[in-house]
Amino acid sequence: MLVYDLDAVHAFMKGRIPGLHRCDDMQAIGWEERGQLVAGVLYEGFNPHNVWMHVAAVPGARWMRREYLRACFAYPFLVCGVERISGYVNESNWQARGFDEHLGFKEEARLRGAAPDGGDVIIYVMRREDCRYVQVPQH
């Protein structure tokens, strides 16, 4: 079930993403199973063209449902009208990288040596026209 409670989703994600801080403009969509949050998406840094997305989930939980993915991409593209969604992943986090690429995000840039482990931070982007989860009107 979809959850739009910023406090609950942020608390869930803060325990799973080290260094995650709450921002004034932050919005959230969570997924709940049997009364427990099992996944969350936070959005921040909104501008007319881009929003930053953060994702966290309980390992092994069945949360990648079409309904949830549609909601997570409809909000930035259809409600907010941004042209792109950006996210960043440490190069060493191969699971998160594979997840982003599976969803359709593409590598756009690397911040050399910027990760806590000394590796690269990879910037991933999904552009509106590349999103397969919602029918996005073209501008």
TrEMBL record:
Keywords: Transferase. It comes from Quisquiliibacterium transsilvanicum. It comes from the Bacteria. One of its GO terms (molecular function) is transferase activity. This is RimJ/RimL family protein N-acetyltransferase. Gene3D superfamilies: 3.40.630.30.
